[in-house]
Write a structure and sequence with these properties.
Strand content: under 5%
Distance between the termini: 43 Å
Helix content: 55-70%
Shape: elongated
Low-confidence stretches: none
Number of helices: 5
Structural class: mainly alpha
């Protein structure tokens, strides 16, 4: 079991997650944290002023729900797929990820399959 864990950790080290665009990453983090910051500000405002109106608590609840939707799994996975397509190092209009050559498939079934002609 320890060998499996060590193999998985070695595979994770090989992924080499890098941030392609620092400003884009900062923008995504800002958009993700903005609703939670608003909810925290409104909560502190309600405590400081002693205001206990129904609209204030509805606004805090709405901000927290928006924050959960902004940082939902589908949104995060979509952003992780879109962000690498922003980088274009040679400025030809084609993202670097699309310019990479495809690796040849060395595990082809040609010749081993009974129907291969």
């Amino acid at each position: 079991m320890l060998e499996q864990i060590s193999r998985k950790l070695k595979n994770l080290k090989q992924l080499r997650f890098t941030i392609q665009s620092v400003w884009l990453f900062r923008f995504i983090v800002f958009i993700g944290l903005a609703p939670f910051t608003l909810a925290l500000f409104l909560w502190v405002f309600a405590l400081a002023t002693g205001l206990h109106e129904e609209w204030l608590f509805k606004m805090i609840d709405a901000a927290l729900r928006i924050g959960n939707q902004v940082l939902g799994p589908a949104v995060v996975s979509g952003l992780l797929n879109i962000v690498p397509r922003v980088t274009d190092s040679n400025k030809d209009g084609i993202p670097d990820i699309d310019e990479k050559e495809e690796k040849s498939d060395e595990k082809s079934d040609t010749g081993r399959h009974p129907d291969a002609g």
